[in-house]
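Still learning. Any example?
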Amino acid sequence: MAQAQGFGRRYIKAFFKGFFVAVPVTVTFLDRVACVARVEGASMQPSLNPGERQVSDVVLLNHWSIRNYEVQRGDIVSLVERTFGE
């Protein structure tokens, strides 16, 4: 029984250690490098949401290129609304 409690404590300790490392890394990545966004509506047709489909497309927004001014002709640029606390 004592061995099971020791295993449980080690498991919980390892979980929280991984959690407290993974969360800041993930938040930093999504804020500085790239994030995933959903594109809805007809404003981006025909590049995104082609035809008359009412399905939204999922895109990867590359923050790194914008920070390094590597935007080229033909690139799609998106303004991202940041909401905190929702």
User: Anything to note?
Assistant: The two ends are 43 Å apart (CA to CA). Residues 14 and 74 are 46 Å apart (CA to CA). Helices lie at 2-32, 63-67.
